[in-house]
Automatic annotation (TrEMBL):
It comes from Actinoplanes italicus. The keyword Transmembrane applies. It comes from the Bacteria. This is Uncharacterized protein. The chain crosses the membrane at residues 12-31, 206-227, 234-252, 258-276, 283-303, 309-328. Keywords: Membrane, Transmembrane, Transmembrane helix.
Length: 331
C-alpha cells in the first residue's frame, strides 16, 4: 500500500482544492443566473421572397415568428410561415446584380457579373464589438438575404442575427430596421453611440488585484502569528494601507492605482514577515501558494468574459479565504 500523506499535507491539499474549485463553481452559478435572468433574445435568421412579390422575414423570440412586406420593404406586418417562398440572390434587371452575405461578419457583398465581389453594406469590426457590448452577445453576423425586384430597381433584405434585419432600398441606401414587431427603442442600437473618439485602452484589473489579495493574505497571517505570540495588536495597522489601496483600485481607478497597489502589496507583507521572523523558504512557499490561487481566479474570470471587476473581486476573495489555512501551515 502507498503511504497516506501526513495530516499537514492533507490540509494543504484541501486548501488548494478549495482555492481552485470554488471560483469555478461560483462562476458557473453566476453564469447560470445571468442566463436565466436575461431571458430569450431576438434573433433574425431567414429572409425569403415569395412568388406574390412579398418579402418574408423569419425571426425567433420576437413575439411574431414571421413578418411580411408587400410594399418593397417599407412596412411590415405579422405573417404566417410562407409557403412557396425562397431566398433570391440576384436581380435580373440590367445591370444584373447578385448579392451574398459575408460569413462571420455584418456585411453584404454584391457582384455585377464580373466576379468582383465588393462590399455593398458592412458594419465595421469596431462597431460590431460595440454592438456585442450593448446586446450582451457576439451572435452578430449576416446569415440570410433575399432580393426583390421593384419598379425602378431592386430591394435587398439581410438577416443579421441579434442585430435584426437591414434593408437596401431601390436607390441603394441601406438601413438597419431591427425586428418588425419590437419597439424601436429595443433594436437596432445606434452606431453613432458606439464609435467614440479613440482612447487609451485601460489595463486589466487582474494584475493589481492579484497582488492586493496576495498582500492581504501574506500580511494578515504573520500579523496573526505576532498577535498570538504576544506581539500586540499594533501590527494589525499594516492591513490599513492595503484596505485603502483596495478601495482605490476597486471603486475609483484600477489603472491609475496599479503602481501604488503593487507597491503596498509588497511593502506591507515584507514588514509583517520580517517582524514575524519567517524564513525565506517559508516566504517563498507561501507566496507561490497565494499566487497560484489568484492565478486560478483570474483564469476563471477571463474565461467568463464578463469584464466586471466585481466578479473578479468575489473570485479572489473566495480564493484568498480558501488558501489562507495552507499559508498558516507554511508560515
Amino acid at each position: 500500500h502507498r503511504p497516506l500523506p501526513d495530516p499537514l499535507a492533507r490540509r494543504w491539499l484541501r486548501a488548494l482544492r478549495l482555492a481552485v474549485v470554488l471560483p469555478v463553481a461560483l462562476f458557473g452559478v453566476a453564469a447560470t443566473s445571468d442566463t436565466d435572468a436575461s431571458g430569450p433574445k431576438p434573433l433574425a435568421h431567414t429572409v425569403m421572397t415569395g412568388d406574390d412579390g412579398a418579402l418574408y422575414l423569419g425571426a425567433k423570440d420576437t413575439g411574431q415568428d414571421w413578418s411580411v412586406s408587400r410594399d418593397g420593404g417599407r412596412t411590415w406586418q405579422e405573417s404566417r410561415k410562407p409557403s412557396g417562398a425562397e431566398p433570391v440572390f440576384c436581380a435580373k434587371a440590367e445591370p444584373a446584380t447578385c448579392y451574398r452575405v459575408v460569413t462571420g461578419a455584418l456585411a453584404v457583398q454584391s457582384d455585377r457579373g464580373d466576379a468582383r465581389w465588393a462590399d455593398s453594406w458592412r458594419i465595421s469590426e469596431r462597431d460590431r464589438d460595440g454592438l456585442a457590448d450593448v446586446y450582451g452577445t457576439h451572435d452578430l453576423s449576416s446569415v440570410s438575404l433575399s432580393v426583390l425586384e421593384v419598379e425602378g430597381g431592386h430591394v435587398v433584405v439581410v438577416a443579421n442575427r441579434r442585430d435584426g434585419f437591414a434593408v437596401r432600398d431601390r436607390l441603394g441606401v441601406w438601413k438597419r430596421i431591427g425586428f418588425p414587431g419590437l419597439p424601436a427603442s429595443v433594436v437596432p442600437a445606434e452606431l453613432a453611440s458606439l464609435t467614440p473618439e479613440p482612447e487609451e485602452e485601460p489595463g486589466s484589473p487582474a494584475f493589481p488585484l492579484a497582488f492586493l489579495f496576495s498582500g492581504l493574505v501574506l500580511t494578515a497571517v504573520p500579523v496573526w502569528r505576532l498577535w498570538r505570540s504576544g506581539g500586540g495588536a499594533l501590527w494589525w495597522w499594516l492591513i490599513a494601507p492595503l484596505a485603502a489601496t483596495g478601495l482605490l483600485t476597486v471603486l475609483i481607478d484600477h489603472t491609475a492605482a496599479a503602481g501604488v497597489t503593487v507597491a503596498t502589496a509588497l511593502i506591507c507583507p515584507a514588514v509583517a514577515l520580517t517582524a514575524a521572523r519567517v524564513t525565506p523558504s517559508s516566504v517563498l512557499g507561501a507566496f507561490l501558494l497565494v499566487m497560484a490561487a489568484m492565478a486560478t481566479s483570474t483564469l476563471v474570470w477571463l474565461a467568463g468574459d464578463t469584464g466586471q471587476i466585481g466578479v473578479l473581486v468575489v473570485f479572489m476573495t473566495v480564493s484568498a479565504l480558501a488558501v489562507t489555512p495552507a499559508v498558516v501551515k507554511v508560515i
